[in-house]
Structures are given as structure tokens and as C-alpha cells.
Amino acid sequence: MTRATDLRLHFAELVVFHIVSFLFQVAKRLERFKTTIFTQMSMLAIKHGAINLGQGFPNFDGPEFVKEAAIQAIKDGKNQYARGYGVPDLNAAVTARFKIDTGLVVDPEKEVTVTSGCTEAIAATILGLINPGDEVILFAPFYDSYEATLSMAGAKIKCVKLRPPDFSVPIAELKSTISKNTRAILINTPHNPTGKMFTRDELNVIASLCIENDVLVFTDEVYDKLAFEMDHISMASLPGMYERTVTMNSLGKTFSLTGWKIGWAIAPPHLTWGVRQAHSFLTFATSTPMQYAAATALQTPDSYYEELKRDYMAKKTILVEGLKAVGFTVFPSSGTYFVVVDHTPFGLESDVAFCEYLIKEVGVVAIPTSVFYLNPEDGKNLVRFTFCKDEGTLRSAVERMKDKLLRK
Ligand SMILES: Cc1ncc(COP(=O)(O)O)c(C=O)c1O
Fold first, then answer.
1. Where do the Aminotransferase class I/classII large domain residues begin and end (predicted)?
2. Whose CA is nearest to atom 7 of ligand 1?
3. Opening angle at CA 287, ends 286 and 292, nearest 5
4. Same-domain pairing of 72 and 40
5. Which of 94, 122, 143, 149 to mutate to test ligand 1, by most ligand atoms within 8 A of the CB atom?
6. What is the DSSP annotation of 256-282?
7. Whole domain around residue 37: which residue ranges?
8. Are 292 and 89 in contact (CB under 8 A)?
9. Which of 38, 77, 118, 157 is least buried, going by the fewest C-beta atoms within 10 A?
10. Same structural domain for residues 286 and 394?
11. How far is Cα 3 from Cα 8, in angstroms, rounded to an integer?
């Protein structure tokens, strides 16, 4: 494509964007959020026949026994509205798993709320517990729904940056960000997009700051079973923290069933109250047969998780070694199915420009990380790849990059 054609296309895209902005209306609280980058990149991927190592969904299916349990539940007539906070079997299964994972014994009836994926657990937690004007601290880069949901709640977002190469928590910066208006800190471990896992020392410091300043913790642990280089630690399990923590999780990543959207929030009764108030008016209840199947999934023995980890370790090795061979600087990832790399050796001016080039000229999709920051400039050198794809797909993507991506 010539530069003139490229410019004309760019201009046409701009015109379309302005027409769309004029015709389609959106409330002020959401107007600065555009189509999510994941949708944009996936659409571009389809257009160019690119291999999608962008959006974090597996290209393989979840386990047969869980799918069979869903079919059985449908056949058994478990098809009407479920109890708002979850079918009893699932609340009990979530509680049992939480006890194995953290040692904490919680009441399935009073402390577990089943939601439509972790996305709804995040929304119900924020909308149910945050008042307009409350300050909430995020660690950037952060999962995109946090900012949009906090904006819907009218919260003030305060950001603390995790920086490469190890993305460790800058404690002094965190301390100076906490104020008398801080209501909550949102953490995500293992962390999307970097793969960082919060260490016990980091969690201990955050915990003591929260206790000292009477701050809540909302913790997104959807990748807890994809912890490769160290053990996952739940904030709720630290001394004095359960009382001020909402732990959010879901079935999607662990059981390779991201389309089912079954999630949950675990919190003491005084915090569950707010979560359930919001949940009642967001979705009220989530899919009944899938909840029964989720209960079956969560009762699976630990060998399932061990095998999952083994499979993902092999995939991770293919991608990480491949990316290094291509010439990227690859930052260490301890958990999740993501790795973040520095794309600057290839000479493109930004992460978005690099990802567009990668799709159009190389045929591989990655996600620009600038969308994970309040200030997009902060992510302009980094892009994220996922390895939740079969090994053949990962190898083909690496081969394409080796063939067509040249260091400048
Ligand atoms: C950190 C994080 N939290 C939450 C979610 C959403 O989870 P769910 O699909 O269960 O809504 C994702 C999905 O990619 C994620 O990466």
C-alpha cells in the first residue's frame, strides 16, 4: 500500500469516526471510552487473516465433564431464574474451593454472590460500595473495565504505576497516593497485562496501609490458577484483611470457558450487602444451567489444575522463547496467560502503530498496552501477547514474526 493510499484511508477513518460520534449518543460518564481495543484488534485480525494472540480467549474448548454437566442441567429443567445471589450448589462449591485455596471458612449464603462473570463482580462491587467522589487507587497498567466502571460510579481514580522490568509496587508512591478520601485499592494478581504476581511482602505492605487508613481492597483473582513462577496469595488470607476485602473471580480462564460468564464475589456480610444491592439491579441472577455446571467444575480434584498449569507452561515456553528469538525484549511473566514485550527494537513510533503494522504486514495480533493506562503515553513502548492458543498456532505466529519482522 502506498503512503498516499494509507493517508486517504486514515482520513476516511477519521471522517467515519466523526459521523459516528455525531449520530450515536452516549452519556458523559462514558463518552471518553471508545470501542474496546480488544474488539478493534479482533476485527482487524479477521479482516487481514491474522493469527490472534491479542484477545485473551483460548482457541480450544473447556473440559467435556463441565460441558456435559451444563447439558444435563438443561435437560433436568434447571432453566428458570436462579436465586439472585447464586444457586445453592454453586455458592457451596465456591466456598469449598476458597477454603482449599486460602484456608478461610466463609458462609455460602451470606458471603458469596454469584455474578455474570468477574466483569459483573467488579461492577457490582464498585457500584455497590463506592460513592461519587470517593478515591479509588488502581495500579497501572490495569484491566480496562476498572476505569469505565469507576467512571460510572463517579469515583476519582488515582493511579500508581507499575514499571518494567519487574512491575514491582512502588511503595513510597503508593503511600503518598493514599489520602483521607481513599475508599479502596483495586488489585489484580496475577496481573493482566504484565503477568506480574504480587509478592507476600508487597501484599503485606498494602494490607497494613489499608488497615492503618481504613481502606477497602477489591481483588481480581481471575488468573489465580495460572500462577507459574510463584504461589498465588489471596489478599483476603492476610491477617486482618478478610473483613475489608472483596475477592472477585470467575470460571472463564481456569476452565477455558470464557463465553459462559459465571463469576463470583466473596466478602464479609457487611460488604456483601452492597455488592448484592448492585447485583440485584444489574442482572439480578445469572444463567441457571451454567451455574450448576460451574458447581461441578469447581468440585474437580486438584489434578485438573496441575494439568492445566503443565499445558500452559509448555505454551508459554513456545511463545516466550519465540519472541526472544524474533528480537523482542520480553519481560518476565509469573502468572496469567500473557507476556509483555518492548517493541521498540522494530522502529515503530507507538504500541498502536506497531500492532497495526504487525496485523497488516506480518499477520499476527498483539494488544497495545497504552489502553491499560490513564495516560496512554505510559504504555507506548509495550505490547501484550497471549499464549492461550494451541501449540501449532503459537508456532505459526512465531514463524511469521521471524520471517517478516526486522529489527531497525
Ligand atoms: C483481569 C481481568 N479481570 C476480569 C476479566 C473478565 O472476566 P470475566 O470474563 O469472568 O467477566 C478479565 C478478562 O479478560 C481479566 O483479564
1. 51-400
2. 118
3. 110
4. no
5. 143
6. T-TTT--EEEE--HHHHHHHHHHHHHH
7. 3-61+304-404
8. yes
9. 77
10. no
11. 9
Measured in degrees and rounded to the nearest 5, phi and psi for residue 167 equal 55, 35
Residues listed for the chain: 408
pLDDT band for 325, please (50, 70, 90 cuts).
very high
Best residue among 41, 57, 119 to mutate for probing ligand 1's pocket (most ligand atoms within 8 Å of CB) is 119
Grid cell 497485562 in the structure block, residue: 193
* CATH number of the domain where residue 376 is located: 3.90.1150.10
User: Is residue 288 in contact with ligand 1, taking CB distance under 6 Å?
Assistant: no
Q: Which atom of ligand 1 is closest in space to residue 336's alpha carbon?
A: 16
CA of 223 to the centre of ligand 1 (A): 9
244-285 confidence digits (pLDDT tens) = 999 999 999 999 999 999 999 999 999 999 999 999 999 999
Beta strands in 116-255 (DSSP E): 135-140, 156-161, 182-188, 216-220, 245-250
Q: Is the CB of 274 under 6 A from ligand 1?
A: no
- d(C-alpha 303, C-alpha 309), whole Å: 10
The number of folded domains in the chain is 2
Query: 405 alpha carbon to ligand 1 midpoint, in Å?
Result: 31
Is 27 in the same domain as 142?
no
For residue 131, give the CATH number of its domain.
3.40.640.10
